[in-house]
């Protein structure tokens, strides 16, 4: 005993030298004696009859354990107290037992009988805790006892005990894996359990014991989906992750139609309207892709119809995006990323961005995942670009990750904004971060051809930075950029050659030398001189620099042997005797290759070809590329390496496995056939309500030409369901004519269907309802918590069935609502295919990101900004030039109009402005922001709109009533007005609790449109179709101050809500053409109500002459717009 | 042999937890399964040494046999040891819950508090995880099992011999509302809600807002008897763009009616957090006029800061504090402030100016000279200002609570709502 304890003491104590000991008598001396003393008095206390002494002793012992001290020699004394009456002592004894039982197996067995007795206790808490401790004792001998106990507990009456049983399963499994088969039986039984308490724990056990037995899930799949929202948070995470894997094996890829196009940038089908994407030669691809409307892939395949169970999973997990638990949010996000149709994935972005406010560790993990996602689905995060801006207080690792995301999100539209941000970052004090920023600029430059030159110039200016790290990093990045088009940049190369005198960072020196060597023909005078200098310092250089010196020498020898022959030989001689064998080898090799001797082989003839071969420019890739083959949110994804126990995310099956396996059979349990019915109903419901609509929707999202066939088959069988998803309508609204008929048919049905609930639901019509349908989820079961299980069950049942009714109602609401957009859309004449993705995008965004309409909100701003790209980037230098405030569209740009003067309004003044945001409840309305200011001392009450007198066809969505507005305060609200694309005023009454005021809002013509994004080619094509009557041209003279590109753009965009068409995007792959002699500015938009295109061209003819052209189908709008723009430009 | 392998691949989620203080001492360890030697922490300590700032320690570290996932909170590292694949956020979120639990039980989360309550913390950890999987993380459930320390109770306990450990199953554990226990009784029934909004903003050097958003949180303190079912509604719920809820809130009601319907936990909790629709422009309550310049000679420079109110909705701005991260080469500052006081910490290069209340008539200004290390070049970096402020009785987004209704209980509770606006991550670039 004594030897044993001493040994243990040594073992335990070895790692904690220098720690103050707890329960240690300060007077005691050496380790051994003190231990005996201390432990003796503890033993005495444990043996006493007083509970308080025992408790005190146990507390001291547990404190020792907590500090990592060894207390194993007390085992016999402690284990005696396992049957102690005092519950607190007992608990502490349990704690001790669990910790040391493994080391003292024989003695531990003494306690087993206590637990066995506990397992039979009438008190469920005691049963559960007995099982918990018993299963935590890692002693192999008791495996059979444990197995028995688990089996028994799995059919316990108390769900809490069953939960404990589920927890015990993995413990037993790790102790004795041979029990697997028995344990699987228990898991199977517990999986069928219907309480939320057990669900999470048993899935956890499933994941640890038999994750491969996916077949066990079939029967429980729908139950798990339905219970999910009520399971505790941790269980939710486990279940969602498991169901992700399950779904990957059982359902078909909802994006299968475009997965074929993936390589070409399948994402363009949706988000592609930014027309940019990554590669340089994209423009061409873009074009071709749009011209052939994704026919080949679609024709061959059968239309994809989403399995209703797949839909069920997506629908039931979505509300969990609102969870306070970051792990749950991430789990849902990865589920959507891996399982949802592309059009629906967007919903997760907002929730992920929200997590960025959380603790920095959470941010770290979320950013890693966002970085991966943003490569595949850039459009999803674009609206949240600014949320990734970096603060100087962020930890470096967060900064670098945010930078990664920003770089992934960069495209032609937002690049100027992003580069301006980068410019701030370059001045940061955190040098690692600065280096990362420089690399990011390099990546942007390679990805977006338009800004390559500007980036390059900016980087060159960084070469004069005082910080060597910055300079070195810039050199490395510049080297990569120059490789793309070296001809034009010989002056930059010259400049860099000069730097060799100052720069000491080896990587940078090496890069410069490589550049000079590679392009020595562009700098024929300087190169030999550099070599001369380098030869002088050769011996003191770093290895990597030496290698490049040899390279430089070799290349110069081949091109200019007259001047450099001797130098080269000198360098090679030096290298011959270098300490590094690599350098010696290289020197020997090169000498053989380039210096013609009689012995030299055939190779030397080709030396020039070998050395001066055209080298492909490096591709700067994100380190997060293709990381999504790991399940997102997993540890393996984070580490980019497979962690132990990682379950691969399976690929989608080619053909769907039999979906009937998930059908729940005749009740196995005794109770209530009614429940069963409900179950069945529930299970089938999605079939009628959602699946058709969904599948139609996915279809149309995938490819337009397919939609017709899909909806045909869909509507033939289940017409009533056709409209259940509001997204669908939006998708459709942009598609071709052959769909029209189909849709009309559907509409009729809908109308009939919708009539019934109209009266009831009208009052609560609001924008939220758009989304409602998506969030169908079981309500939380509350109210009857204290009752026994049975009661609970029946309770939940009733609430569920109630809820079903309400679901149906809400669906119908939505159907009704949906009519409006459709009818609007159908008035729109046939559009060219080319344009379709655009409309889709804006509408889609509205729905998905509702109620933040930020995506399109950002666009006009950015377009406007991109104009000033060149000016902005001048700032990449480190001079302290303050940005002129006008370059950053200030919010004050919006012109406000007075609606009610303070005096007429008796202290209430009302102003309005067109805030140019899409009006989320109805995209066909113009958003009007109204600001109420109460300058009176008394409060104004019940501010609302009454008695709107509108011209026929005009509609208005009033703002919600403002109940009170205290004196001195102001409040702003947003209302929507559909002006029917006319500038007629909307007249209405503005009422307070005392008075009514007649007011009217008349929109300037420029506010009747919203910006859309177009490339130059598209613009030209569209313009070509709007000639003749639809084209209005005016000439004007521009004033001096208004001639700049920037001024023109600003004025036009202020006058009309249009976005700028980036020019010259088609010059990307061809060598850049010189900029046109006279700048042309193009702007595009469409009218809010009918979606007619509005194209504006401002041609600067030089000598202050200019010409404005407006192409618009609506001639009235065109004429008015020309006038407005003329006025704006000549003011 | 086989058993060994299986053990490896089926370990539990969180294997062990170590609490580490800033100087690298491990002062608590808890293993939910077999013991892992604390030498595993060396990998972590090494990474911590390397990082300049504790915040820069990577939250996930891979070692040959284990993975270490850690959080840094309240100047303590919570370091967990993982053996197999587990969602990292799962662990991180759990560790934060542990820290919150300590805070909740003992009023603060610090080394001293943990050391003083070692046994109770250990017991709590025992209850929170079973075999590495979270078991009871709801504070209400925990508090029924292990009663928080309380002077009165400890006196009673010593007199009567009763204990801190509950002997009945926590009622919450079994019900579908685990966050509330049954049989809560108060003589004064009251429910308070604090609407706290934080403005996150980046203002560039010309004073333009680069980025601004409002994040809000509704903190509740509910002390109501029985099983009250509350409904909280807002005057302008449309403002709320993105929300997250305490599990007690019924999603469904929110989706359909935009009201918060819930059976509250007992005591303090965070009811919801929200993000305000970016469509509504964010009011920026203060502006800063700043100039920093360095002499070409390289010996020093000047700093001039003025803070003034901007869009304050007629309220007073209080608790204004400006912190500046100075470039590394600045040795000392010699400034005079017309209001408040400043400190400069040469170690962290942090200049803190505590202004207090903002008086629009007399704007606080601070100016003076900066001296550089001798021979150091003129700094090229731009420092940035972080601003802290508080506005009482105002939710800057304009969010207003409309009413609070209670169902399920008969008594009339006392209700109160408070609004406050603060600066969140509010940064001004110079």
TrEMBL record, chain A:
Gene Ontology cellular component terms for the protein in this record: AP-3 adaptor complex; clathrin-coated vesicle membrane; Golgi apparatus
Domain of life: Eukaryota
Record's compositionally biased regions (Low complexity): 698-724
Keyword Phosphoprotein: yes
Ranges of compositional bias, category Basic residues: 744-758
Biased composition (Basic and acidic residues): 673-687, 759-773, 830-839
Membrane topology type: Peripheral membrane protein
Biased composition (Acidic residues): 274-286, 725-741, 786-812
Name the record gives this protein: AP-3 complex subunit beta
Organism: Umbra pygmaea (Eastern mudminnow)
Organismal lineage: Eukaryota, Metazoa, Chordata, Craniata, Vertebrata
TrEMBL record, chain B:
Family: Belongs to the adaptor complexes medium subunit family.
CDD domains per record: AP3_Mu_N
Main location as per UniProt: membrane
Membrane topology: Peripheral membrane protein
Matches recorded under Pfam families: Adap_comp_sub, Clat_adaptor_s
Organism: Umbra pygmaea
Locations listed in the record: Cytoplasmic vesicle membrane; Golgi apparatus
Domain MHD as annotated: residue spans: 188-429
GO CC aspect terms: clathrin adaptor complex; cytoplasmic vesicle membrane; Golgi apparatus
GO biological process: intracellular protein transport
Transmembrane stretches, start-end: none
Protein name according to UniProt: MHD domain-containing protein
Keywords: Cytoplasmic vesicle, Golgi apparatus, Membrane, Protein transport, Transport
SUPFAM superfamilies, alphabetized: Second domain of Mu2 adaptin subunit (ap50) of ap2 adaptor, SNARE-like
């Amino acid at each position: 005993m004594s030897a044993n304890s001493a040994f243990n003491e040594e073992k335990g104590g070895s790692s904690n030298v220098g720690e103050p000991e707890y329960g240690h008598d300060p007077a005691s001396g050496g380790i051994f004696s003190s231990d005996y003393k201390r432990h003796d008095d503890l033993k005495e206390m444990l043996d006493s009859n007083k509970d308080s002494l025992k408790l005190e002793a146990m507390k001291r012992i547990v404190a020792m354990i907590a500090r990592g001290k060894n207390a194993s020699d007390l085992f016999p004394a402690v284990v005696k107290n396992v049957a102690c009456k005092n519950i607190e002592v007992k608990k502490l004894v349990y704690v001790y037992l669990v910790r040391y039982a493994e080391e003292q197996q024989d003695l531990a067995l003494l306690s087993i009988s206590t637990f066995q007795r506990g397992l039979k206790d009438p008190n469920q808490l005691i049963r559960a805790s007995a099982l918990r401790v018993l299963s935590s004792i890692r002693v192999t001998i008791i495996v059979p006892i444990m197995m028995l106990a688990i089996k028994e507990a799995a059919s316990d009456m108390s769900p809490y005990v069953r939960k404990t049983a589920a927890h015990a399963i993995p413990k037993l499994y790790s102790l004795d894996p041979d029990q697997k088969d028995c344990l699987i039986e228990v898991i199977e039984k517990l999986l069928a359990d219907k309480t939320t308490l057990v669900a999470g724990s048993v899935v956890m056990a499933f994941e640890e014991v038999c994750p491969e037995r996916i077949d066990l899930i079939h029967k429980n799949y729908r139950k798990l989906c339905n219970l999910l929202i009520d399971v505790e948070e941790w269980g939710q995470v486990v279940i969602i992750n498991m169901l992700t894997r399950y779904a990957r094996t059982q359902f078909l890829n909802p994006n299968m139609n475009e997965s074929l196009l993936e390589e070409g940038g399948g994402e363009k089908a949706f988000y592609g309207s930014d027309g940019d994407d990554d590669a340089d030669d994209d423009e061409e691809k873009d074009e071709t892709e749009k011209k052939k409307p994704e026919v080949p892939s679609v024709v061959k395949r059968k239309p994809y119809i989403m399995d209703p169970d797949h839909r069920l999973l997506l629908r039931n997990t979505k509300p969990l995006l609102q969870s306070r638990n970051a792990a749950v949010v991430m789990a849902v996000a990865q589920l959507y990323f891996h399982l949802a149709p592309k059009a629906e994935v967007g919903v997760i972005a907002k929730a992920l961005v929200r997590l960025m406010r959380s603790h920095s560790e959470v941010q770290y993990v979320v950013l890693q995942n966002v970085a991966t996602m943003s490569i595949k689905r850039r459009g999803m995060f674009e609206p949240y670009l600014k949320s990734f801006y970096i603060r100087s207080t962020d930890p470096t690792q967060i900064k670098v990750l945010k930078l990664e995301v920003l770089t992934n999100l960069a495209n032609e539209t937002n690049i100027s904004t992003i580069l301006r941000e980068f410019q701030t970052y370059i001045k940061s004090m955190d040098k690692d971060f600065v280096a990362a920023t420089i690399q990011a600029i390099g990546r942007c430059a390679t990805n977006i051809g338009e800004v390559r030159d500007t980036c390059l110039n900016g980087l060159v200016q960084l070469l004069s930075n005082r910080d060597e790290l910055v300079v070195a990093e810039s050199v490395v990045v510049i080297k990569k950029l120059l490789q793309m088009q070296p001809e034009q940049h010989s002056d930059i190369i010259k400049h860099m050659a000069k730097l060799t005198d100052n720069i000491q960072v080896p990587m940078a020196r090496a890069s410069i030398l490589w550049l000079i060597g590679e392009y020595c023909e562009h700098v024929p005078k300087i190169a030999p001189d550099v070599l001369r200098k380098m030869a002088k310092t050769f011996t003191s250089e770093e290895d990597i620099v030496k290698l490049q010196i040899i390279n430089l020498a070799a290349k110069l020898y081949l091109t200019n042997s007259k001047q450099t022959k001797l130098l080269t030989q000198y360098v090679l001689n030096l290298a011959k005797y270098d300490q590094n064998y690599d350098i010696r080898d290289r020197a020997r090799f090169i000498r053989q290759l380039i210096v013609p001797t009689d012995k030299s082989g055939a190779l030397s003839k080709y030396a020039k070809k070998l050395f001066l071969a055209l080298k492909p420019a490096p591709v700067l890739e994100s380190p997060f590329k293709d990381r999504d083959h790991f399940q997102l949110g997993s540890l393996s994804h984070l580490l980019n390496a497979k962690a132990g126990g990682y379950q691969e995310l399976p690929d989608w099956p080619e053909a769907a496995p039999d979906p009937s396996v998930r059908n729940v059979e005749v009740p196995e349990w005794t109770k209530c056939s009614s429940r069963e019915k409900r179950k069945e109903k529930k299970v089938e419901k999605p079939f009628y309500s959602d699946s058709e609509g969904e599948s139609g929707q996915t279809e149309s999202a995938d490819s337009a030409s397919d939609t017709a066939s899909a909806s045909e088959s869909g509507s033939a069988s289940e017409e009533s369901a056709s409209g259940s998803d509001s997204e669908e309508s939006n998708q459709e609204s942009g598609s071709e004519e052959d769909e029209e008929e189909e849709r009309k048919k559907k509409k009729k049905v809908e109308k009939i269907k919708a009539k019934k609930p109209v009266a009831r639901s009208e009052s609560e019509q609001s924008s939220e309802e758009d989304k409602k349908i998506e969030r169908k989820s079981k309500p939380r079961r509350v109210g009857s918590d204290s009752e026994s299980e049975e009661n609970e069950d029946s309770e939940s049942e009733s609430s569920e069935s109630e809820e079903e009714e309400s679901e149906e109602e809400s669906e119908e609401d939505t159907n009704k609502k949906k009519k409006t957009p459709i009818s609007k859309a159908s008035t729109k004449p046939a559009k060219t295919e080319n344009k379709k993705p655009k409309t889709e995008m804006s509408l889609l965004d509205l729905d998905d990101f509702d109620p933040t309409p930020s995506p399109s909100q950002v666009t006009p701003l950015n377009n406007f900004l991109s104009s000033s790209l060149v000016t902005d980037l001048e700032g990449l230098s480190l001079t302290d030039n303050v940005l002129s405030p006008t370059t950053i569209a200030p919010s004050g740009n919006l012109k406000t109009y007075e609606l009610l003067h303070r005096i007429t309004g008796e202290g209430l003044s009302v102003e309005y402005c067109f805030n140019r945001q899409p009006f989320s409840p109805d995209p066909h309305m113009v958003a009007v922001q109204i600001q109420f200011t109460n300058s009176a001392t008394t409060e104004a009450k019940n501010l609302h709109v009454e008695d709107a007198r509108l011209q026929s066809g005009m509609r208005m969505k009033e703002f919600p009533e403002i109940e009170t507005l205290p004196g001195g305060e102001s409040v702003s609200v947003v209302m929507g007005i559909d002006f029917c694309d006319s500038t007629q005023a909307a007249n209405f009454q503005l009422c307070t609790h005392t008075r009514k005021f007649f007011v009217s809002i008349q929109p300037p013509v420029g506010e009747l449109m919203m910006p859309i994004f177009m490339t130059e080619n598209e613009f030209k094509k569209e313009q070509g179709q709007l000639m003749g009557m639809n084209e209005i041209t005016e000439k004007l003279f521009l004033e001096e101050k208004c001639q700049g590109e920037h001024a023109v753009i600003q004025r036009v965009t202020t006058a009309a809500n249009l976005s700028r068409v980036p020019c010259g995007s088609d010059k990307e792959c061809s060598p850049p053409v010189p900029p046109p002699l006279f700048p042309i500015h193009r702007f595009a938009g469409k009218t809010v109500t009918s979606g007619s295109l509005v194209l504006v061209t401002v041609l600067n003819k030089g000598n202050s002459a200019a010409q404005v052209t407006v192409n618009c189908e609506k001639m009235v709008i065109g004429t008015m717009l020309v006038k407005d723009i003329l006025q704006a430009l000549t003011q | 042999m086989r058993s060994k392998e299986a053990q490896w691949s089926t370990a539990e989620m969180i294997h062990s937890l170590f609490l580490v203080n800033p100087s690298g001492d491990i002062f608590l360890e808890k293993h939910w399964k077999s013991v892992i030697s604390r030498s595993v922490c060396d990998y972590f300590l090494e990474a911590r040494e390397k990082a300049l700032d504790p915040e820069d320690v990577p939250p996930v570290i891979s070692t040959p046999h284990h993975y270490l996932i850690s959080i840094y909170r309240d100047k303590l590292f919570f370091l967990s040891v993982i053996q197999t694949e587990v969602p990292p956020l799962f662990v991180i979120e759990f560790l934060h819950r542990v820290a919150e639990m300590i805070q909740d039980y003992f009023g603060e989360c610090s080394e001293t508090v943990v050391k003083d309550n070692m046994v109770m913390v250990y017991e709590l950890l025992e209850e929170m995880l079973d075999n590495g999987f979270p078991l009871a993380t709801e504070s209400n459930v925990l508090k029924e099992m292990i009663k928080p320390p309380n002077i009165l109770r400890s006196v009673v306990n010593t007199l009567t011999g009763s204990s801190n450990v509950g002997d009945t199953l926590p009622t919450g554990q079994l019900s579908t509302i685990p966050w509330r226990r049954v049989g809560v009784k108060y003589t004064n029934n009251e429910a308070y809600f604090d609407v706290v909004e934080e403005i996150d903003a980046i203002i560039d050097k010309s004073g333009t807002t680069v980025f601004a958003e409002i994040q809000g949180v509704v903190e509740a303190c509910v002390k109501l008897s029985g099983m009250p079912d509350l409904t909280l509604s807002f005057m302008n719920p449309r403002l709320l763009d993105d929300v997250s809820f305490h599990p007690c809130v019924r999603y469904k009601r929110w989706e359909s009616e935009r009201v918060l319907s819930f059976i509250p936990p007992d005591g303090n909790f965070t009811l919801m957090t929200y993000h305000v629709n970016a469509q509504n422009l964010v009011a920026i309550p203060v502006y800063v006029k700043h100039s920093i310049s360095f002499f070409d000679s390289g010996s020093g420079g000047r700093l001039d800061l003025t803070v003034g109110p901007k869009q304050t909705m007629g309220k007073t701005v209080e608790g204004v504090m400006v912190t500046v991260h100075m470039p590394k080469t600045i040795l000392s500052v010699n400034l005079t402030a017309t209001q408040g006081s400043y400190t400069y910490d040469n170690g962290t290069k942090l200049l803190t100016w505590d202004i207090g209340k903002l008086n629009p008539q007399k704007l606080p200004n601070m100016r003076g000279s900066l001296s550089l290390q001798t021979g150091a070049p003129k700094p090229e970096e731009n420092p940035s200002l972080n601003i802290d402020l508080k506005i009482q009785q105002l939710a800057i987004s304009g969010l207003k609570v409309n009413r609070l209704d209670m169902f399920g209980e008969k008594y009339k509770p006392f209700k109160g709502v408070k609004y406050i606006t603060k600066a969140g991550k509010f940064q001004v670039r110079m």
